[in-house]
Write a structure and sequence with these properties.
alpha+beta, 7 helices, five-stranded mixed β-sheet, about 25% strand, DNA-binding, single chain
DNA sequence: CTTTTTCCCTGGACGC
DNA sequence: TGCGTCCAGGGAAAAA
C-alpha cells in the first residue's frame, strides 16, 4: 500500500527516465485505469507529450508535460511501475499501461487490483483538484499548531482523522499506526481530545516516520515494489504495523489488534492508553 | 457541516 | 483438489 514515502521513492526513480523525454506512444490496457474512461482518447492525448517534471503531492504522482497537461497517477493499493529498456520487460497479465518513451525506455504500470487511477487534467485544474482533496504536505509547510487546529474540530477516532487526506496528505494505514505508537496515542481516541503536548508529539512522530520511510526507500510488502525492481527496507523498522500479538518494543506488552475507521490497527495497550 | 457505510477489485490464506 | 469465505485498504460516493 504505497503511502507518502513509497510514492516519493517511486517519484525519484521515475524522474531520470521521464524528465526531458517524450512519450512516443502510450498503451492503455485497462479502460478503468484512466479518467476519462476512454483509453483511446487518453493514449492519444499522452502520445507525443514531453515530460517537464515528475512531482508528488500527498500520495499522487504529478507528471507535468511541457504541453501544459498534467497526468495525476494514484497507485492506491497495488499500483507499481517498472522501467526497463524497450522490450526488455517480461509479459505481465497485470500490466495496465505502458509508456513507450523516445529515449528507449518502457515505463510499464502494473496494478493487480485495479484501484489505481491515471487522471489527465489541464494544468489550470490541478490546484483546485488538490485543494478539494488534500491538506498540507506533512514534510513542508505543516506546523503543530496547524495540526492542532485541524484535529480540534473533529470528534471521530484520531486514526480515522489522520487517514483523512484533507487533514494531512500522505498518511496511510501503516504510517498512521507507526506515528500513533511513537506519539503514545491511542488510535481510537477522539481527535478533539488531544492536548497541546499530545499534538506536538504526534506532529513530530508523523514527520519522523515519514522521513524514515523515505530514507529507507519505503516499505516493501505484498504488491508494492519500486520502478527499478529494488525493494525498500522500511518494513524492517515497523514498530507496530503487522505486529499484533507480538511484544511492544518499548514496554514488552503484547500488541493488540483493533479496527478503527474500518482499518486494521495495531497498538500497544500500555504505551498508547485510551 | 461531519460521520458512517458501501463499493470497487483481486489474490492469498484458511477451513472443510 | 476444489470450493466458499474472509481479509488486505485508499478514496469516491451515497447515506445518515
Amino acid at each position: 500500500m504505497p503511502e507518502l514515502p513509497e510514492v516519493e521513492t517511486v517519484r525519484r526513480q521515475l524522474e531520470p527516465s521521464l524528465v526531458g523525454s517524450s512519450i512516443g506512444r502510450a498503451e492503455i490496457a485497462d479502460p478503468r485505469l484512466t479518467r476519462p474512461h476512454d483509453p483511446v482518447l487518453v493514449a492519444a492525448a499522452l502520445s507525443g507529450r514531453t515530460v517537464e517534471t515528475v512531482g508528488r503531492r500527498g500520495k499522487y504522482l504529478v507528471v507535468r508535460f511541457v504541453e501544459r497537461d498534467v497526468l495525476l497517477v494514484h497507485l492506491r493499493m497495488t499500483g507499481s511501475f517498472r522501467v526497463a529498456p524497450r522490450g526488455a520487460l517480461p509479459a505481465d497479465p497485470h500490466r495496465r499501461a505502458v509508456l513507450i518513451m523516445d529515449n528507449g525506455s518502457d515505463v510499464a504500470y502494473r496494478d493487480v487490483r485495479r484501484f489505481g487511477t491515471w487522471e489527465l487534467l489541464d494544468a489550470d485544474a490541478v490546484d483546485a483538484y488538490f485543494a478539494a482533496r488534500l491538506g498540507p504536505e506533512p514534510l513542508e509547510v505543516f506546523s503543530a499548531r496547524d495540526l492542532a487546529a485541524r484535529l480540534e474540530r473533529r470528534r471521530a477516532a484520531l486514526k480515522a482523522v489522520l487517514l483523512d487526506q484533507r487533514v494531512v496528505a500522505g498518511l496511510g494505514n501503516i504510517y498512521a499506526d507507526e506515528a500513533l505508537w511513537r506519539a503514545g496515542l491511542h488510535p481510537g481516541r477522539s481527535a478533539s481530545s488531544l492536548d497541546d503536548a499530545d499534538v506536538r508529539r504526534l506532529h513530530r512522530a508523523v514527520r519522523h516516520v515519514l522521513r524514515r520511510g523515505i530514507a529507507r526507500q519505503g516499505a516493501t510488502l505484498r504488491d508494492y515494489s519500486s520502478p527499478d525492481g529494488a525493494t525498500g527496507e522500511m518494513q524492517e523498522e515497523f514498530e507496530v504495523y503487522g505486529r499484533a500479538g507480538q511484544r511492544c518494543f518499548r514496554c514488552g506488552h503484547e500488541l493488540e489488534r483493533h479496527v478503527v475507521g474500518g482499518r486494521g490497527t495495531t497498538a500497544c495497550p500500555i504505551c498508547q492508553p485510551f
